Amino acid sequence: MTKYLASLGIQSLVQQRAFAGKTANKLMDALKDSDLLHWKHSLSELIDISIAQKTAIWRLYGRSTMALQQAQMLLSMNSLEAANAGAQQNNTESFAVALCHLAELHAEQGCFAAASEVLKHLKERFPPNSQHAQLWMLCDQKIQFDRAMHDGKYHLADSLVTGITALNSIEGVYRKAVVLQAQNQMSEAHKLLQKLLIHCQKIRNTEMVISVLLSVAELYWQSSSPTIALPVLLQALALSKEYRLQYLASETVLNLAFAQLILGIPEQALSLLHMAIEPILADGAVLDKGRAMFLVAKCQVASAASYDPLKKAEAVEAAIENLNEAKNYFAKVDCKERIRDVVYFQARLYHTLGRTQERNRCAMLFRQLHQELPSHGVPLINHL
């Protein structure tokens, strides 16, 4: 009993230190020592909690590959136990948490069929009225919301906000603001984000504070005020670095580069992008990989404005290649709105190169997507 309580104490301390921004290696070292105790005394429940905790820590720090590995390890262990010992199903909270992470990680990479299979298993293992059902319910609603937003179905996304709010009020308010912003209701979105920011600062929810700051900055440049966005982004960057949130730090640098592009300094933006693009391409969601490559292409074209004709043509060709990569990423998550933006940009670039056939193909695809999707009159340059 003493060993059990001591291990729980270590796991609780690790969780507190993760939120305080301690480095991953120190947290994993602390868990390693308690893991030895768990295996030695066959404390299977604590082994599961430890693996689920590692999954959550790696996701917190933006290391999706490591998070995926830990979640799959817990799933594999449970399968082996069931096969070898005829064990009952593992219906603990830690197992539900790990499976939810697994579903979200697959959805982030555009593997929606795999995410659906994981959620289907969760629904069978944790029926709606069971103790931990709210975990997969929230996970399912968030994935549905993201897919609706990718597809430009803002009214469908808005209808999901009520369910998300019932399960997690902070998440629900944030996603309501995201929908308002997408619908071009800037002042309403700004009021909501400001209230949420004050609340999250009070309860020290640093992850959400940074996400809100990024959304506020986006509101500013969509309102043609990129200079006001810069101090907000620098605040987000300072917080993400202080708390070791690598993925959010990369996301913030991406936004800073975009602000520089809007301000007319694309060379500096391109230089800044090199700091952020590697972790995004390595561990980021597919949508963010596409956004990063799209921004690289925009910066390449803007930087080439003063080049001689031959060098400018080479830069435009390189940008078109990056746009193709961005389009492939967006297609994986069925993000038609962003594909529309890419093909519009490609059509213009092909036109400057005199490649009429490719230009017409992109223009036709743009027209088709433009008829399918809502248009809110936001200029292309103001959309990251």
UniProtKB/TrEMBL annotation:
Its main location: cytoplasm. InterPro entries: Apc5, TPR-like_helical_dom_sf. One of its GO terms (cellular component) is spindle. Keywords: Cell cycle, Cell division, Cytoplasm, Cytoskeleton, Mitosis, Nucleus, Phosphoprotein, Repeat, TPR repeat, Ubl conjugation pathway. One of its GO terms (biological process) is anaphase-promoting complex-dependent catabolic process. Belongs to the APC5 family. It is found in: Cytoplasm, Cytoskeleton, Spindle; Nucleus. This is Anaphase-promoting complex subunit 5. The keyword Nucleus applies.
